[in-house]
Amino acid sequence: MKCPFCGHLETQVVETRVSEEADFVRRRRQCSHCEKRFTTYERPDVSFPAVVKKDGRRVDYVLALRKRPVSTEQVDTAIERIEEKLLNLGTREVPATRLGEMVMRELKKLDKVAYIRFASVYRSFEDIDEFRALVDEVRK
Description:
By secondary structure, the chain is α+β, with helices and mostly antiparallel strands. It has helices at residues 72-89, 96-110, 112-122, 128-139; strands spanning 11-18, 25-31, 37-42, 50-52, 58-59, 93-95. The strands form 2 sheets. A 3-stranded antiparallel β-sheet has the order 1-2-3, with no helix packed on it. A 3-stranded mixed β-sheet has the order 5-4-6. The longest helix is centred in the middle third of the chain and has 18 residues, at 72-89. The N and C termini lie far apart (58 Å).
């Protein structure tokens, strides 16, 4: 590991700690040249499939839940479930429609308003009756 202070290529690990969730490793290192210490973090590098949109564009996988009374933990758990499903697909790409359905299932569990917001954009409703049918479905 290259020293961020002097650029020397030899550093030693002086302390290693695993995070509480065991999802990364924190290492304290010391440069053998300037003897300054710095911290590095080691995380797994996981490749999620690209999302293929209807028009053929490929975009990175992103999930957003904005301005709703849902805890960060709930959102993180929903994202983890979606990401686990994506990883289990074992493909390099996933159609946006398939990802959209996964997101809608998770949103429906988390927050009905967020689900309706997402579905109204995702399904491109043509008239108010389609929107009303969705709201009625959620009320049941």
